[in-house]
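Service request form, structural biology core

Requester: graduate student, group of Dr. S.
Request type: structure prediction, single chain
Budget code: on file
Notes: please return the result as structure tokens.

Sequence provided:
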Amino acid sequence: MYQAVVQVVSGFDSRRGTWNSRYVGEWLVLSLPLILCGLSMGFAARAGLFNIGAEGQYIAGLTAAQAAAVSFTRVLGDQVNIFHITAALLCAILAGAVCGGICGFFKARYKVSEVVSTIMMNYIALYVHRIITLRIPGSNTFRTVDFSISLSNSFLSSITNNSRLNNGVWLTIAALIIYSLIMEKSALGFALRAAGFNRDAAMYAGIRVKTNITIAMAISGAFAGLAGAVVSLGLFSHGRVLTAFEGYGFDGIAIALAGNSTAGGIAVMGLLFGMLKSAQPLMQSRQIPREIVTIIMGLVVVFISLRPGIYIFLNYLEKKKFRLSQRSSAREKEGSL
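Core staff response, request fulfilled:
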């Protein structure tokens, strides 16, 4: 298992003594949507919200990016430039933001639990995607229209031995920087964090909590929508129909929790989970059950989630020790009297 992990991270196959950088490129490619969906969950969590709808927002972004790519290809053919790629990305970001913002609006306006609304929105996004992308709604006919809009990067692909590594790398790095700047360096981020710590106190301080809830969920959805664009435009050259959830959004929840909802933590955990997922085929070829990866990912989240409980237990021991010392000192005073 460790040999498979080392091969994914470094490209070196210790069994054969060969090196192939393609493994590194594929590891990074698989990590990109995980990091972006982790940012989606983490942004909402810092604002005191629980966004389980990153999967639906990812699908909304994927659908919008595909629709834009297919439309531009049909109208313009191969005459696609940076403006059309930017427009497709913006469509994906906007679709994810709308998907998340709707749940935020219901939370702010009608106090509808964002957990329930985002779970329901996952299924709405999936089946709306199927209606839009299928030629005949309800049939099994796949839409395989090739489009010319792509995030491919020949240089990144060449240095990783023709892997699928693409310009999604730069988009993910930009998303990490934007996440950090908004949450740590802006007045909006301060207001969101204040509302996350104590909503009543933030409202008393004059912060527009209801507006910020909608904004937080919209921005959260925008990150997941970008993940959909990175996958659809970076890994595929044609429209496709999802038959089920792909799991990026759900994995993003674990990544955000394990990364403590910070940009650096989410990046590290996204790379870790991407590494484990990339190592699955190699493990399976070595007669190691691929389910071991899911077990490891679950244990990582469990052990990190235990941290607050460990702190509570240590504080309890300190308080107990303090009380015992007070009792012993009181007994000593009584004995001296």
